[in-house]
Design brief:
alpha+beta; elongated
């Protein structure tokens, strides 16, 4: 159970407020202390039964608020005002989300936690510490939304999509405590003629950042680019399709871990022509290694001449040492997109794989240093190098053995340490990402081995 919000006056206030503003200070408007009436004996808001509240200012204005809620905690609030006075009244609808105290955040550069919004189809993110320095940041937009996000949870206010709003992110000190606020006010007033009733509609969301849910609200309620509340990052064009592919494969295969394996196979097939080019280039270099070694020995004391002879050899045999770089560069955004999917989507949270992996979004908790749990003692976190990172390191080492060794001895020595370095490094990464990398290595080894067999090169 998640307790996301708390009212003003509680130990950790985090709440939303909606209402009306006026340039006429003599108007009596409802505020946080106003006592509203309901026409029901059981004023409980449910998905089946809306809640209607009424407040009279005793000066000819009656305020009525109708609140509905769906099963995913999207509130729809319709505020209307009945004008029984003899003159027209102009009011500005407003809304705010306030949070007292800076929450504990991961502080990881690939994830935004804090105030954010979409204004004129553009995402704006503001860090807590930046807001502390600048106090206020304002923006004007037609439609859009504004709110505050945690890693998996979100609070948002969205005004009517065709209305212009003046929005702001604010920071202040309240009794020595940091207070953050995301708010909007309609740029155009709602004018209510004598005897008329007029109103304004606002959506308030307080729930989990589920991709399909937020996309659904964009379709059904017109909340502009609501999915940007999930930090898909620079590789949005890859990350989001990867997510939907994993969801589809999970429904087909019954497990997110199997979905990762399946998507990896699909990506290998998609990139097969590039990988084939890379492996054939490496195979050609592997075939030339005996001649390259002879040149290195012959010109061991003259590196300039050795490099010239090597270039001549490459030119004569039509081999290009750099031809294998492009597929590797393409793998970088794919790897990062996988990482983002595992890191930011709540759908992946607490999803198990087979065996000891109970959560694909957290590191493998087994350790080599207690023989993966066979020895009866716990291992310090900095010594936690699990079975899957070791499997990944072994596959990386095997794949490296299929490749031609670098001509530079120092470079060759550095390359030989890479599997160990990556094993230690990836021990702290989500298990799902390590599984993807290990499986991707295995598929690469199989493809490269077959190409080498066809070329008559000993693998």
């Amino acid at each position: 159970q998640i307790n996301l919000l708390s009212p003003a006056g509680s130990p950790s206030p985090y709440y939303a407020e909606l209402g009306w503003l006026s340039s006429d200070s003599s108007l009596n408007l409802p505020n946080a202390d106003s006592l509203w009436r309901t026409d029901r004996d059981d004023p409980v808001l449910t998905t089946d039964q809306p809640l209607v509240l009424t407040w009279d200012n005793n000066n000819g204005l009656t305020f009525r608020r109708t609140i509905t809620i769906d099963q995913d905690y999207m509130f729809s609030i319709y505020d209307e005002v009945e004008n029984k006075t003899s003159g027209a009244v102009s009011l500005f609808p407003y809304g705010l989300i306030a949070r007292v105290d800076t929450p504990d955040i991961l502080g990881f550069f690939i994830l935004h936690e804090g105030p954010l919004g979409v204004f004129d189809e553009t995402l704006k993110e503001v860090d807590y510490d930046d807001l502390q320095d600048n106090s206020t940041e304002t923006v004007t937009s037609t439609g859009g939304w504004i709110g505050i996000t945690d890693k998996y949870w979100l609070t948002v206010l969205a005004h009517e999509e065709n209305k212009t709003i003046e929005a702001a992110f604010r920071h202040s000190l309240s009794s020595g405590r940091d207070r953050y606020q995301a708010d909007f006010r309609s740029a155009e007033p709602v004018s209510i003629a004598p005897g008329d009733t007029a109103g304004s509609k606002t959506y308030f969301f307080a729930g989990a950042k589920e991709v399909e849910l937020l996309d659904g609200y964009t379709e059904s309620l017109g909340i502009d680019r609501f999915d940007l509340a999930i930090d898909f990052g620079w590789f949005y064009f890859l990350t989001k399709p990867f997510f939907y592919a994993l969801i589809w494969l999970k429904d087909m295969l019954g497990n997110f871990g199997l979905a990762i394996l399946g998507l990896t196979v699909a990506l290998r097939l998609l990139l097969y022509p590039l990988a084939d080019k890379q492996f054939r280039a490496m195979t050609k270099l592997k075939k030339l290694q005996p001649e390259m070694k002879k040149l290195q020995e012959r010109y061991a004391d003259d590196r300039t001449r050795m490099n010239q002879e090597l270039m001549e050899l490459y030119k004569r045999e039509k081999a290009n040492p750099a031809s294998g770089c492009l597929p590797i560069l393409i793998q970088i955004p794919i790897f990062f997109a996988f990482y983002k999917v595992l890191f930011v989507t709540i759908e992946m949270r607490q999803e198990p794989f087979y065996g000891w992996i109970s959560d694909l979004t957290t590191p493998d908790t087994t350790s080599l240093f207690n023989l993966f749990g066979l020895l009866p003692f716990d291992v310090p976190s900095f010594l936690t190098i699990g079975a899957w990172p070791i499997i990944m390191g072994i596959t990386m080492w095997l794949q490296q053995k299929l490749n031609p060794a670098p001509t530079d001895p120092i470079q060759a020595k550095v390359m030989s340490f890479l599997p160990i370095i990556f094993t230690v490094l990836l021990a702290t990464f989500p298990a799902g990402l390590v599984i993807y990398w290990a499986w991707n290595n295995v598929l690469g080894i199989l493809q490269q081995w077959l190409i080498m067999r066809q070329a008559g090169v000993k693998a």
